[in-house]
Amino acid sequence: VNIILLGPPGAGKGTQAKRLVDERNMVQLSTGDMLREARSSGTEMGKKVAEVMDKGGLVTDEIVIGLIEEKITGNAGGGFIFDGFPRTLKQADALGALLEKTGQSLDAVIEMQVDDAALVARITGRFTCGGCGAVYHDVTKPTKVAGTCDVCGSTQMVRRADDNEDSLKHRLMEYYKKTSPLIGYYYARGKLASVDGLAEMEAVAAAVAKVLDKK
Ligand code: AP5
Ligand code: ZN
After folding, report:
1. Does the complex come out with an ipTM higher than 0.95?
2. How many CA atoms lie within 13 A of 134 on its CB side?
3. How do residues 20-33 score in pLDDT, each as one tens digit?
Protein backbone atom coordinates (compact mmCIF):
# COMPACT_ATOMS: atom_id res chain seq x y z
CA VAL A 1 0.00 0.00 0.00
CA ASN A 2 1.09 3.56 -0.71
CA ILE A 3 0.12 6.22 1.81
CA ILE A 4 0.59 9.89 2.57
CA LEU A 5 1.10 11.11 6.15
CA LEU A 6 -0.39 14.58 6.31
CA GLY A 7 -0.15 16.99 9.20
CA PRO A 8 1.49 20.16 10.51
CA PRO A 9 5.13 20.30 11.69
CA GLY A 10 5.50 18.18 14.82
CA ALA A 11 2.33 16.15 14.20
CA GLY A 12 4.37 12.94 14.41
CA LYS A 13 4.67 12.04 10.72
CA GLY A 14 8.33 11.04 10.92
CA THR A 15 7.83 9.08 14.13
CA GLN A 16 5.02 6.98 12.66
CA ALA A 17 6.76 6.58 9.31
CA LYS A 18 9.83 5.05 10.99
CA ARG A 19 7.60 2.52 12.78
CA LEU A 20 5.95 1.49 9.51
CA VAL A 21 9.39 1.00 7.96
CA ASP A 22 10.33 -1.38 10.79
CA GLU A 23 7.02 -3.18 11.14
CA ARG A 24 5.78 -3.38 7.57
CA ASN A 25 8.90 -3.05 5.48
CA MET A 26 7.54 0.11 3.90
CA VAL A 27 9.80 2.74 2.29
CA GLN A 28 9.79 6.22 3.84
CA LEU A 29 10.09 9.08 1.37
CA SER A 30 10.60 12.21 3.47
CA THR A 31 11.21 15.30 1.38
CA GLY A 32 12.44 17.05 4.56
CA ASP A 33 15.15 14.39 4.99
CA MET A 34 16.07 14.57 1.29
CA LEU A 35 16.37 18.35 1.46
CA ARG A 36 18.50 18.18 4.63
CA GLU A 37 20.78 15.81 2.74
CA ALA A 38 20.92 18.20 -0.22
CA ARG A 39 21.86 21.13 2.01
CA SER A 40 24.65 19.25 3.73
CA SER A 41 26.16 18.57 0.29
CA GLY A 42 27.10 22.27 0.13
CA THR A 43 26.13 22.71 -3.54
CA GLU A 44 24.61 25.95 -4.84
CA MET A 45 21.17 24.33 -4.75
CA GLY A 46 21.86 23.11 -1.21
CA LYS A 47 22.70 26.62 -0.03
CA LYS A 48 19.45 28.04 -1.43
CA VAL A 49 17.48 25.23 0.16
CA ALA A 50 19.12 25.83 3.55
CA GLU A 51 18.14 29.49 3.56
CA VAL A 52 14.49 28.72 2.86
CA MET A 53 14.29 25.83 5.33
CA ASP A 54 15.84 27.72 8.24
CA LYS A 55 13.22 30.43 7.91
CA GLY A 56 10.46 27.83 7.74
CA GLY A 57 9.37 28.54 4.16
CA LEU A 58 8.56 25.98 1.49
CA VAL A 59 11.17 24.96 -1.07
CA THR A 60 9.98 25.28 -4.70
CA ASP A 61 7.64 22.65 -6.10
CA GLU A 62 10.07 21.91 -8.96
CA ILE A 63 12.85 20.89 -6.59
CA VAL A 64 10.77 18.60 -4.36
CA ILE A 65 8.84 17.02 -7.22
CA GLY A 66 12.20 16.26 -8.85
CA LEU A 67 13.42 14.58 -5.65
CA ILE A 68 10.32 12.38 -5.41
CA GLU A 69 10.43 11.51 -9.10
CA GLU A 70 13.92 10.08 -8.64
CA LYS A 71 12.80 7.75 -5.83
CA ILE A 72 9.37 6.64 -6.90
CA THR A 73 10.54 4.26 -9.60
CA GLY A 74 12.71 2.30 -7.16
CA ASN A 75 11.74 -0.71 -5.04
CA ALA A 76 8.69 0.10 -2.92
CA GLY A 77 9.03 -2.84 -0.51
CA GLY A 78 5.74 -2.92 1.43
CA GLY A 79 4.73 0.37 -0.17
CA PHE A 80 5.74 4.01 -0.07
CA ILE A 81 5.09 6.35 2.84
CA PHE A 82 5.07 9.93 1.61
CA ASP A 83 6.14 11.95 4.65
CA GLY A 84 5.96 15.74 4.30
CA PHE A 85 5.01 15.48 0.63
CA PRO A 86 2.84 16.66 -1.05
CA ARG A 87 2.62 20.08 0.59
CA THR A 88 0.90 22.08 -2.17
CA LEU A 89 -1.88 21.36 -4.66
CA LYS A 90 0.70 21.42 -7.44
CA GLN A 91 2.73 18.74 -5.65
CA ALA A 92 -0.43 16.67 -5.11
CA ASP A 93 -1.28 16.80 -8.82
CA ALA A 94 2.31 15.90 -9.69
CA LEU A 95 2.26 12.91 -7.33
CA GLY A 96 -0.97 11.67 -8.87
CA ALA A 97 0.56 11.87 -12.34
CA LEU A 98 3.80 10.16 -11.26
CA LEU A 99 1.95 7.28 -9.63
CA GLU A 100 -0.22 6.82 -12.67
CA LYS A 101 2.78 6.88 -14.99
CA THR A 102 4.50 4.16 -12.96
CA GLY A 103 1.35 2.02 -12.67
CA GLN A 104 0.91 2.57 -8.94
CA SER A 105 -1.95 3.86 -6.84
CA LEU A 106 -2.49 5.89 -3.72
CA ASP A 107 -4.33 3.89 -1.08
CA ALA A 108 -4.83 6.30 1.81
CA VAL A 109 -4.03 9.75 3.08
CA ILE A 110 -3.73 9.73 6.85
CA GLU A 111 -4.31 13.12 8.39
CA MET A 112 -2.71 13.45 11.84
CA GLN A 113 -4.87 15.87 13.82
CA VAL A 114 -3.16 17.89 16.53
CA ASP A 115 -3.61 21.35 18.00
CA ASP A 116 -1.17 24.20 17.60
CA ALA A 117 -0.42 24.57 21.29
CA ALA A 118 0.93 21.02 21.47
CA LEU A 119 3.20 21.55 18.48
CA VAL A 120 5.46 24.11 20.16
CA ALA A 121 6.30 21.64 22.95
CA ARG A 122 6.81 18.83 20.44
CA ILE A 123 9.14 20.83 18.20
CA THR A 124 11.23 22.58 20.85
CA GLY A 125 11.83 19.27 22.69
CA ARG A 126 12.81 17.23 19.64
CA PHE A 127 16.29 15.88 18.96
CA THR A 128 17.50 13.21 16.55
CA CYS A 129 20.36 10.74 16.42
CA GLY A 130 23.09 11.87 14.03
CA GLY A 131 24.05 8.25 13.49
CA CYS A 132 20.77 6.59 12.48
CA GLY A 133 18.13 9.33 12.40
CA ALA A 134 16.05 7.99 15.31
CA VAL A 135 13.72 10.71 16.63
CA TYR A 136 13.54 11.55 20.35
CA HIS A 137 11.92 14.09 22.63
CA ASP A 138 13.22 15.60 25.88
CA VAL A 139 9.99 14.75 27.71
CA THR A 140 7.88 12.26 25.75
CA LYS A 141 10.65 10.06 24.31
CA PRO A 142 14.01 10.49 26.04
CA THR A 143 16.89 8.11 25.34
CA LYS A 144 17.34 5.35 27.95
CA VAL A 145 20.88 6.50 28.71
CA ALA A 146 21.22 10.29 28.53
CA GLY A 147 22.93 11.37 25.30
CA THR A 148 23.18 7.86 23.82
CA CYS A 149 20.96 6.55 21.02
CA ASP A 150 18.84 3.50 22.02
CA VAL A 151 19.02 2.15 18.48
CA CYS A 152 22.63 2.54 17.34
CA GLY A 153 24.56 3.68 20.42
CA SER A 154 25.76 6.91 18.80
CA THR A 155 26.37 9.84 21.16
CA GLN A 156 25.91 12.42 18.42
CA MET A 157 22.54 14.03 19.06
CA VAL A 158 21.39 16.87 16.82
CA ARG A 159 18.73 19.55 16.96
CA ARG A 160 17.36 21.00 13.73
CA ALA A 161 18.12 24.64 12.87
CA ASP A 162 14.42 25.23 12.12
CA ASP A 163 13.20 23.83 15.44
CA ASN A 164 12.74 27.15 17.20
CA GLU A 165 9.55 29.09 17.92
CA ASP A 166 10.02 31.77 15.23
CA SER A 167 10.63 29.34 12.44
CA LEU A 168 7.82 27.09 13.70
CA LYS A 169 5.34 29.97 13.46
CA HIS A 170 6.30 30.45 9.83
CA ARG A 171 6.11 26.71 9.13
CA LEU A 172 2.61 26.62 10.63
CA MET A 173 1.50 29.58 8.53
CA GLU A 174 2.78 27.84 5.41
CA TYR A 175 0.92 24.70 6.47
CA TYR A 176 -2.42 26.47 6.85
CA LYS A 177 -2.05 28.53 3.68
CA LYS A 178 -0.63 25.96 1.29
CA THR A 179 -0.90 22.43 2.70
CA SER A 180 -4.20 22.23 4.59
CA PRO A 181 -6.24 22.54 1.32
CA LEU A 182 -5.00 19.01 0.61
CA ILE A 183 -7.36 17.71 3.29
CA GLY A 184 -10.35 18.65 1.12
CA TYR A 185 -8.52 17.59 -2.04
CA TYR A 186 -8.09 14.03 -0.78
CA TYR A 187 -11.44 13.89 1.02
CA ALA A 188 -13.14 14.59 -2.31
CA ARG A 189 -11.19 11.69 -3.81
CA GLY A 190 -12.32 9.30 -1.06
CA LYS A 191 -8.77 8.83 0.25
CA LEU A 192 -8.83 10.68 3.56
CA ALA A 193 -8.64 9.01 6.97
CA SER A 194 -8.04 11.05 10.13
CA VAL A 195 -6.33 9.93 13.32
CA ASP A 196 -5.88 11.67 16.66
CA GLY A 197 -2.23 12.74 16.63
CA LEU A 198 -2.43 14.03 20.20
CA ALA A 199 -2.78 10.53 21.60
CA GLU A 200 0.26 8.62 22.91
CA MET A 201 2.65 7.28 20.27
CA GLU A 202 1.42 3.69 20.70
CA ALA A 203 -2.22 4.72 20.34
CA VAL A 204 -1.44 6.74 17.21
CA ALA A 205 0.42 3.74 15.77
CA ALA A 206 -2.60 1.52 16.46
CA ALA A 207 -4.93 3.98 14.72
CA VAL A 208 -2.61 4.14 11.70
CA ALA A 209 -2.39 0.33 11.60
CA LYS A 210 -6.17 0.10 11.57
CA VAL A 211 -6.37 2.30 8.48
CA LEU A 212 -3.68 0.25 6.70
CA ASP A 213 -5.26 -3.08 7.56
CA LYS A 214 -8.47 -2.05 5.83
CA LYS A 215 -6.60 -1.49 2.56
P1 AP5 B 1 10.00 18.34 7.33
O2 AP5 B 1 11.26 17.70 7.66
O3 AP5 B 1 8.98 17.61 6.55
O4 AP5 B 1 9.38 18.91 8.67
P5 AP5 B 1 7.88 19.14 9.15
O6 AP5 B 1 6.78 18.88 8.21
O7 AP5 B 1 7.92 20.51 9.73
O8 AP5 B 1 7.64 18.02 10.12
P9 AP5 B 1 8.52 17.64 11.29
O10 AP5 B 1 9.64 16.77 10.87
O11 AP5 B 1 8.87 18.90 12.04
O12 AP5 B 1 7.48 16.89 12.21
P13 AP5 B 1 6.89 15.41 12.20
O14 AP5 B 1 5.43 15.51 11.91
O15 AP5 B 1 7.69 14.48 11.37
O16 AP5 B 1 7.06 15.11 13.74
P17 AP5 B 1 8.03 14.07 14.51
O18 AP5 B 1 7.59 12.67 14.28
O19 AP5 B 1 9.46 14.42 14.29
O20 AP5 B 1 10.27 19.72 6.53
C21 AP5 B 1 11.24 20.64 6.94
C22 AP5 B 1 11.35 21.76 5.92
O23 AP5 B 1 11.76 21.24 4.64
C24 AP5 B 1 10.07 22.54 5.60
O25 AP5 B 1 9.84 23.58 6.54
C26 AP5 B 1 10.35 23.05 4.19
O27 AP5 B 1 11.23 24.16 4.22
C28 AP5 B 1 11.11 21.89 3.56
N29 AP5 B 1 10.22 20.92 2.88
C30 AP5 B 1 10.05 19.60 3.21
N31 AP5 B 1 9.19 18.99 2.39
C32 AP5 B 1 8.79 19.94 1.50
C33 AP5 B 1 7.89 19.93 0.40
N34 AP5 B 1 7.21 18.82 0.05
N35 AP5 B 1 7.71 21.09 -0.30
C36 AP5 B 1 8.39 22.22 0.03
N37 AP5 B 1 9.26 22.29 1.06
C38 AP5 B 1 9.46 21.16 1.79
O39 AP5 B 1 7.62 14.44 16.03
C40 AP5 B 1 7.95 15.70 16.61
C41 AP5 B 1 8.37 15.49 18.08
O42 AP5 B 1 7.25 15.04 18.84
C43 AP5 B 1 9.47 14.43 18.26
O44 AP5 B 1 10.34 14.85 19.28
C45 AP5 B 1 8.70 13.16 18.70
O46 AP5 B 1 9.48 12.33 19.55
C47 AP5 B 1 7.49 13.76 19.43
N48 AP5 B 1 6.26 12.97 19.23
C49 AP5 B 1 5.83 12.37 18.07
N50 AP5 B 1 4.63 11.75 18.26
C51 AP5 B 1 4.30 11.97 19.56
C52 AP5 B 1 3.16 11.59 20.35
N53 AP5 B 1 2.15 10.87 19.83
N54 AP5 B 1 3.14 11.97 21.64
C55 AP5 B 1 4.16 12.73 22.18
N56 AP5 B 1 5.26 13.10 21.49
C57 AP5 B 1 5.33 12.74 20.18
ZN1 ZN C 1 21.02 6.15 16.45
Report:
1. yes
2. 21
3. 999 999 999 999 99
